[in-house]
Amino acid sequence: MDDKEKNDNLQQPTETSQPMYVTVPEDSVQPEEIASNVEATDQTDFSQIQPEIAPIEADPTPIHKEQSKIPFIIGGVAVFFIVFILLFAILSSGAKKKTTTAPVVVSLTYWGLWEEKEVMEPLIKEYQKAHPNVTITYEKKSEKDYRKKLLTWIQNGQGPDIFRFHNTWVPEMVLPNPASTPELALATLPESVMTSTEYEKTFYPVHVKDLEQVIKEKYADGTEKIIKKNILGMPLMIDGLVMIVNEDLLKKAGISSIPTNWDEMVAAASQIAVKGKDNTLITAGFAAGTATNVSHFSDIYGLMLLLNGGELTKLDQPEASGALEAYRRFAEEPNNVWSDSMPNSVNAFAQGKVAMIFAPSWEIHAIKTTAPDLKIVVAPIPNPPGGKQFSIATYWVEGVSKKSKNQLEAWKFLMYLSSKEGQTKMFEIQSNIRMFGIPYSRIDLADLLIQDPYLGPVVKQAAEDRFVSLPLITNTFDEGLNDEVVRYLENAINGASQGVSYGEAMKKAKEGVDQVFLQYKIK
């Protein structure tokens, strides 16, 4: 067979087919595709045959079917690898971000009142070691205009994250924005930091009564249900009125034991009092009865009001006028045991001129600084005849601003300060600087102080739930609730000393106190 015949067999175009130009690879020609009339003995080198361009039939040949699968296979494999690589990159990137993202940096500003930086800085540094992303700046502020400045700064969004306030200030911690509904400046303690149940078990009953805001729902049948308890502050201390006694003056008067009830205290005061020839008091038995020279006079009157069964909202009742009469009796001649001619009561005690005073434990620092060798005994407030013993609480609390952008971190820091570790460290630092630290606010630390000669009576009264808070505390410098109530009580005491009847003096005081309570929405 000649070359022409071979080519005729290989090339058979149809008239209707349209040519598609395809170059068939040389190595794609297989022996079985050769025409059947090619003799087996023909030794023609098929690798040298270059087929002419031939039109593709309507039904493609098997060669073209097998070729058309290759791009799909290759494309599928490529897509698989691309998707795999993309997923791997995304997952790797996410894992990398998760492990390398740094904690959010938090800056807290803390306004204090009485504690120096040397007390607070070690505690702050200790906390920051465990929380390197938190920076805390402590600033000791002046008590002058403190509350008003604090609220103004918070209102303007420039106030501190953490601040100190008095236990009686809650009703007056309202932002000064008359154009809107009054808003409390105090943020509430998150349940994630401490639940109300934990709070009630950790701190003394007076803390809970002062700082726990109970939200109730009233029903048509008159019943109520507690639906929420908001905690408004973290106490780091407890304090209130105790009896401070000059032991030497008692012994000099022949009294061998510290009075434990009210009658014993009054009798001892009369026995100790010493007067000169002109009936001038030389040594006083007990500092009470006046307003001008008795430190914490309003606190003491409030105590006597409670002991007499009275209430601050009912100053026109006999219990209130009776308490005023009992208070004034200590300074009324001829049987007076105190006089307005004496120095200020705390100074008089340090000078050995009065045997007994009622004051918070922090006044002991001033007394011992002035008279370090003075022998003093601290005792709980004496029991009243036939009644329950009370004392007036006065202490400071740490709060968190409602406008703070870092409330959670602020509460976490206060949680540390109020912990066993935080409070014991604070007490240790304070005791290295002054005579002793502030009494612990935690019930589970009571055993550490119950035998302390100066702080034991404070803890005892707190543990026995004898402390009551009333907004008539001197020296809170609030220029509001306390200072205004104190002023009306001062007027009543001074009026009674000038001859105004006790009942009239207290009725006048009630008019002023009612206005103050109305202003601060106290019922």
What is the topology?
Blueprint: H1 3-10, H2 62-100, E1 106-112, H3 117-130, E2 134-140, H4 146-155, E3 162-166, H5 196-202, H6 205-211, E4 212-218, E5 224-231, E6 234-235, E7 241-246, H7 247-252, H8 262-272, E8 274-275, E9 281-286, H9 297-307, H10 318-329, H11 345-350, E10 354-360, H12 363-370, E11 376-379, E12 391-392, E13 396-400, H13 407-418, H14 420-433, H15 456-463, E14 467-468, H16 481-497, H17 502-519
Parallel strand pairs: 1-2, 1-3, 9-10, 12-14
Antiparallel strand pairs: 3-13, 4-5, 6-13, 7-10, 7-11, 8-9
Description:
By secondary structure, the protein is an alpha/beta fold. It has 2 domains: 106-238 and 396-463, Periplasmic binding protein-like II (D-Maltodextrin-Binding Protein, domain 2, 3-Layer(aba) Sandwich), CATH 3.40.190; 241-395 and 468-519, Periplasmic binding protein-like II (D-Maltodextrin-Binding Protein, domain 2, 3-Layer(aba) Sandwich). The protein contains 17 helices and 14 strands. It has helices spanning 3-10, 62-100, 117-130, 146-155, 196-202, 205-211, 247-252, 262-272, 297-307, 318-329, 345-350, 363-370, 407-418, 420-433, 456-463, 481-497, 502-519; strands at 106-112, 134-140, 162-166, 212-218, 224-231, 234-235, 241-246, 274-275, 281-286, 354-360, 376-379, 391-392, 396-400, 467-468. It has a 5-stranded mixed sheet. Helix 3 (117-130) runs antiparallel to helix 14 (420-433) and helix 9 crosses helix 10.
